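Case study 2.
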Amino acid sequence: MAYIGNWPTTVGFNTTNFKTITDTRQTVSQSGRRIRVSTASSRFSATLKYPPMTLANWKPIQAVAVRSQGPLNSFDIQLPSVSDNSSGTTGITATVNGATSQGSASVVLATNKNSTTILKAGDVVRFASHNKVYMVTADATTDGAGAVTIGISPNLFEDVTDTSSVTVDDVPFRMTLERDVQEFKYATNGTVAYEIDVIEEL
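Prediction:
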């Protein structure tokens, strides 16, 4: 498998169905008590639908879809609204302030914004040291020196290194196509309709 770059952005999606997947094993005792254990890190997936496109707009997208070879190869893709920072603060730069170990549910950041809300609950972030995307679990407001601790879900999939950069807006998801077969609907009026199911690569 290989990373093939960014998914084309010349035409935007008009529908996004965003999902989180958490594998949980459940056992029910004779008394009715349920025991629940997570068996894997949570990951994100989405169904993305394009509006009907002209052939000129469609062909570059078709080329990347074919290069993906179904779920074999991965790409970075921004999800409409989901990848956006909803805090209203622009021009944020952030780095990890202190190495943080795999399994942690929070990370300390150093930023260029003092006493400012830089992330809202439900926003997403991605650390430069690996490709997993995390959801912020509570509003994050920096102190007077620009430091802030963010809660994340799921817990860190890998260690993050000190001073590594953090993407807090226009966050790309490292995804693969979820299905082996891709269907391209060519209409007689010269337009093409396409819908993709993507799932996060861990």
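Residues 55-68 form the longest helix (14 residues).
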